[in-house]
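HUMAN:
Just now I want nothing more than another pair of eyes on a protein record. I would be glad if you read both lines and explained how they fit together. I have put the entry right below:
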Amino acid sequence: MKKISLLILAGVFALTSCVTVKKLPGLDKVYVTNTKQINILPPSEVDVELDDLMQLNLKNGGSSVAVLVYVQSDSDGVFIDIMNDFGTDMGTMTYDGESVELDCPLFPKNMPPEYIINDLQNAFYKFDSVKNNLNQSKLEFTETVDSKTKTVVRTVKDGEKVIEKVTISGKSVTVENLLRKYSFSLIVSE
């Protein structure tokens, strides 16, 4: 995945009202590292079903942007409605297991939406399914649970190098991609 410039994304968010659509006839593989790629898992592997309004905070370097998202995720697929602070629709992303459609000016045209699904599957899909998928590319997937706080930490590693860290605590999820140097958090709105 190419580095996302959130400063550019914020500018696009503020200045444009047109959207671009990327509809794929199939699913592209995701490069977890610069040389190791994986397939996206089907929605039937969802472990944590979502049907929530959430605050999405994106960070890339010193740039950041925050938007509201309504996320529905279950064994039928993933649907995300992206909105500004006033609740105005800014775009959508859908994944049905066969194709991904991203229709939103916040994301660069050349950003494959499979990368977003990959980050979500690392957080919300069945642990063993994600682990087996990553193991096929000789990547390690671990999960630890703090017994006191119930905080779950999932880690993707290439050898000793941590590629991505997912932290699930209460009603928030944080994804930190250390290789691509971006992070985002999803926080359930009350």
In short: Confidence is low (pLDDT under 50) at residues 1-25. Residues 114-124 form the longest helix (11 residues). The radius of gyration is 16 Å. The helical segments are 6-15, 114-124, 127-135.
